[in-house]
Amino acid sequence: MWKAMNLASSPKGTNPAMAAFPRSLSSMAASVGGLALFLVIASLLLVSYPIGSTIRGYFYGIDSSRQADLLLLEGNQSSTDLHHDSNLDVVDEDSSLGLDFKGPISLGGVNNNSVNVIDSQSEFNLQESTTGTRKEGKINPKGGSVTLSVKEIDADKGSEENSSDAASADSKSGAKSDKSAVPSNASKTGSDDSGCDLYQGSWFYDSLGPLYTNNTCPVLTQMQNCQGNGRPDKEYENWRWKPSQCDLPRFDAKKFLELMRGKTIAFIGDSVARNQMESMLCLLWQGNLFLQLIASIEVFIEVILASMGHAFPRVEAPKNRGNKKMQRYLFRSTSTMVVRIWSSWLVHQTSESIDFAPKGVVKLHLDAPDEHFMEFIPNFDVIVLSSGHWFAKQSVYVLNNEIVGGQLWWPDRSRPKKINNVEAFGISVETILTSIATHPNFTGLTILRTYSPDHYEGGAWNTGGSCTGKEKPLAPGELVENGFTEIMHKKQITGFDRAINKASNKSRLKLMDITESFGYRHDGHPGPYRSLDPNKLTKRGTGGKPPPQDCLHWCMPGPVDTWNELVLEIIRRDFEANQDPSI
């Protein structure tokens, strides 16, 4: 009776529970819609208003104002007015470069007399874009590509006339070695396992743009924050590298973290190493607005999958575990550590007096590795090395405890120098790679990133060199070979060749040869957009003098992100080639 009455009271005899169901569904839809609207608004606010340094410090343990390795150059200062610290070295502007060159190669821009002011964490190398053979290539405007062929370096090109017999033998060997002499644990191109050369290809315009913005990465050094510093153009962010015979995938943070699960990658070297490490963190940390929305949806999906016993890595904010010896960021979902260690030259250095070199001048023991990071390498699974630009800085070269040369220092002209700074660089590369490849407790992967070209056109950084107004990669016929870059690259290859023939442990050496392809990217540097100073100079002054600018480091986001796409591909190939088939 009660049941009949209850049904009768319902419209058209409908069950009350069923009548309530549409209202519950409507409430759920409204909640989901409200959440989506919140995510959209929050993401827009995140992009529009970057996280302040105070908030960064609270949540991430980062205070950008106290980054030990940040060189702050005010835009309205002269290029030699740097913040001094205990490691700052100012070289007399009348000092000789101390080179044995008599050819077109110069470290001092249009003049060989230069002021070399470099602090311990950032450098502006002194070198000239010398006139030489133009590269072959082709470029199309937006939507097109810049194509080039990576060729073997001419052994005689840019070589010094008065070099030693050993140096002459090196130059005649060329940039490439006989692969038959290369051990199985070494690779010149990182492509031996796939048949595709990653470094012969072209730049193409990608309308999708970068994977992060200058506002979504809290660890971006202000000097490389080109958009935040007022750079008006953005197309330099969209050009991506395409190998001729295969594809180079966009950086996949999930894939990287999964490959590096329980592992550590260390970026070791100069401020260009810092540039690359920060790019890696930005790529892993946060994506752009669209990717943030996708990530929010993925979080919801992953919560459901986790309840079913599945777990997947996703882009996340790392935990800052750094100390005075190294920067360390831990991605806890996969226990992946990203490390950066500063090492100017990668070899042992001291300021103590040696023979006729007085105390205070930096002495480089070219036959001994930098002990400050060698003690840590057994803990690393992947090492990425960066060096070269500090060989333009004042230093004394020591081999077997004997002074054999010097850069911007040689007091006794009656004493003949046995090596110059270019040869010293080649020896240092051989030393550090050999030390790693023969270390009894290192079994990981070492990636040598080749010399990063600068683009100071018309002079050096302090003699009128400029990269202002460059908005896209160089076109065919525009790329002029830089003699100093060419020979530095060649000596680096020679050092690599010698090291891989001495390798004795189970580690692997890979060469990431970016020098020629990045010679086309004169558009990727900060130029005059190096600081937030609203009064900084960005235009040429009276007499056509360019403003102070940085044409060595790379904007972020920008071309430097390609380096980490290459690193990911090298790691993937290496790990797949060396994985245990029984697993």
UniProtKB/TrEMBL annotation:
GO cellular component: Golgi apparatus; membrane
Membrane topology annotation: Single-pass membrane protein
Region (Disordered): 126-193, 522-550
Residues annotated as domain Trichome birefringence-like C-terminal: 248-569
Matching Pfam families: PC-Esterase, PMR5N
One GO MF term: O-acetyltransferase activity
Subcellular location: Membrane
Keywords on record: Membrane, Signal-anchor, Transmembrane, Transmembrane helix
InterPro entries: TBL, TBL_C, TBL_N
Domain Trichome birefringence-like N-terminal: 195-247
Compositional bias (Basic and acidic residues): 151-160
Family, as annotated: Belongs to the PC-esterase family. TBL subfamily.
Name of the molecule in the record: Trichome birefringence-like N-terminal domain-containing protein
Organism lineage string: Eukaryota, Viridiplantae, Streptophyta, Embryophyta, Tracheophyta
